[in-house]
Specification:
single chain, 573 residues, 3 domains, three-stranded antiparallel sheet, 17 strands, 51% helix, flat
Length: 573
């Protein structure tokens, strides 16, 4: 048995060699604590696309363990290159803290991981660890929310189409209407978290680890990885189909329970498929398990040749318990670790200075949006309602706004108008009616850009708004409705979702000025797209902008407000 794998005894070493290492770990946790907290919130958020990230450290540990013999046979040679990487890592960290951009902090952490590897074990072993270290990226929430909707929407439609087809094959009558599937006794909505994109991201992570751990030709491992895309679509459509079957044949409540636990079915089916696909490709082993009869026969023959007295490798926990740090190696890396300690301590001391004065401005308060308005011969008012300025739990979990204005106004001109405004951090409050629940069972059409006329008594300096004028109709219904929308990012008026998305993506790398972002949608609730309905909407929007424009433009200070209130959705079972 290799003594490097399981040493019987090693000389004692002074504990003071471990103090710099413990200090580096503790300081690292402190300086990256905000980032770790953000990761955890993203991983555990309802409907998160990063729920798989919790398992990434386990995958990394298994990858390193699988390659342990190669790592043991490769000499360690701590390199100053690692300490050089700490400098840009700390620069990115401080920049990310100054701009309040967690993506930069995540890149900083990845650089620090490579720096630690170079300093502790050197270039040769780091080269062997390249894939496991890069795999750490899979636990970082780096996919912008603004891109998720754009990418996921076509997958969402395809998943709904496939599920409806499978249900009809099972002789359960199902009609797809956008992202809605109407059955005889059950109406199912394929929302964004169930679109299939979440399944795709999770399976890409799982399959990348599986393909790395499989022993076989390179093309076979790539084949295992690329099969993930059609596999995720098929398995997600099958999952939606099973939810529909339970909802139709049992009850909507049972379908909800099945929905919550069906993620385990996805992973189990994916593993079974990949394992058997690896067998079909005649890969050799998966974490030591033979994947074909020839390999099994070869392993059995080798075991017979070695005989029953051949030394057996101890279990992994025995090896871990028996492992002791080598005093000589600790002595060699001590200067590197002390250098890291100094840089981490400096970053921790500089952070409060850099972040001083970062006071994000509050968004517009509900009190600054009038309940009643009068403009010339016209007036509008919003009646008391349990839903006023509130969101359902499901919508709030998706948007997580700092403020919401959600009201129905009735006008003296016979208009019925809904005002929907979400405000907060732009990276979380982004809202695109083309891909959100508003459009899941509706067809939206952009009509024109309209420059909103400013009323004579509008406060000087208030920006003039150019609106995106749109129309929509529900699937299966003939009535069409007018609505207008725009975005405010960094105090600038933007009309389209791509414009807002690009502006917010820039914030993710360069930070923001502390100004809240807004999405504003004003919908004509009375059906019709004639000029009368259109003018009602324009009149109302001009009157509303006179009141909210100074705040959204940044010319008037927003008043403090409370958190978003949640209301029960009457449509939920």
């Amino acid at each position: 048995m290799n003594e490097e794998i399981l040493p019987a005894h090693r000389p004692a070493f002074p504990l003071h060699y471990l103090l710099p290492v413990a200090a580096a770990i503790g300081l690292g946790i402190l300086v990256y604590s905000h980032m770790f907290q953000w990761w955890w919130e993203e991983w555990t958020a309802p409907g998160s696309f990063y729920a798989h990230a919790i398992f990434v450290p386990f995958f990394v540990a298994v990858m390193i363990w699988r390659d342990r013999k190669k790592l043991i046979d490769t000499p360690s040679d701590p390199s100053w290159t690692g300490l050089l990487l700490v400098v840009p890592s700390m620069a990115l960290l401080l920049l990310g803290k100054r701009l309040d951009v967690t993506m930069l902090q995540s890149f900083s952490f990845l650089l620090m991981v490579f720096a630690a590897s170079l300093m502790l074990v050197g270039k040769a072993k780091t080269r062997l660890l390249l894939f496991p270290l890069c795999f750490v990226v899979m636990m970082m929430p780096l996919i912008p929310d603004q891109l998720i909707g754009t990418i996921a929407f076509p997958i969402q439609m395809l998943s709904a189409k496939l599920a409806a087809m499978f249900l009809n094959v099972l002789t359960l009558h199902a009609v797809q209407q956008g992202a809605m599937i109407q059955m005889d006794n059950y109406l199912m909505s394929v929302e964004l978290p169930c679109s299939g994109f979440k399944t795709l991201v999770s399976l890409l992570t799982f399959t990348a680890a599986f393909a790395y751990l499989v022993e076989g030709a390179l093309w076979k491992r790539w084949a295992l990885f690329f099969v993930t895309i059609p596999l995720s679509l098929f398995i997600n459509a099958l999952r939606i189909t099973l939810i529909g079957v339970v909802g139709e044949l049992v009850s909507p409540k049972a379908a909800g329970i099945f929905h919550d636990y069906s993620g385990f079915i996805v992973l189990t089916l994916a593993f079974l498929f990949l394992f058997n696909f690896a067998r079909i490709l005649k890969c050799e082993r998966f974490i030591g398990i033979p994947l074909n009869d020839e390999q099994q026969a070869s392993d059995d023959a080798k075991a017979d040749a070695e005989g029953p007295d051949a030394p057996q490798e101890p279990a992994w926990w025995q090896m871990l318990l028996a492992w002791r740090p080598d005093a000589g190696q600790l002595r060699r890396i001590a200067p590197f670790i002390l250098g890291v300690d100094g840089m981490l301590l400096a970053a921790m001391l500089i952070t409060p200075v850099l972040t001083r004065g970062l006071n994000p401005q509050p968004p517009i308060s509900t009190a600054q949006v009038p309940l009643e308005m009068t403009e010339g011969a016209y007036s509008w008012s919003t009646p008391p309602s349990p839903y006023r300025d509130k969101l359902t739990k499901e919508v709030n979990e998706v948007l997580t706004p700092l403020r919401v204005i959600n009201r129905e106004y009735g006008g003296s001109d016979g208009s019925h108008i809904n005002v929907f405004i979400t405000a907060g951090n732009g990276r979380k409050t982004f809202h695109d009616p083309h891909t959100c629940s508003f459009g899941s069972n509706a067809v939206l059409e952009d009509i024109r850009y309209l420059k909103l006329p400013l009323l004579p008594d509008t406060r000087p300096g208030t920006l003039q708004v150019t609106l995106n004028e749109c129309q929509y109709h529900r699937n299966g219904e003939a009535d069409r409705f007018e609505f207008m929308m725009f975005y405010v990012v960094e105090g600038k008026i933007l009309q389209t979702a791509p414009d807002a998305r690009n502006a917010i993506l820039r914030q993710m790398f360069y930070g923001d000025a502390g100004k809240p972002s807004y999405f504003v949608r004003i919908t004509q609730e009375s059906p019709g797209t004639d000029e009368e309905r259109r003018q009602q909407l324009i009149r109302f929007t001009s009157a509303l902008w006179k009141h909210i424009g100074p705040v959204l433009s940044g010319n008037e200070k927003a008043q403090p407000g409370g958190p978003v209130e949640i209301v029960e959705d009457p449509k939920q079972p």
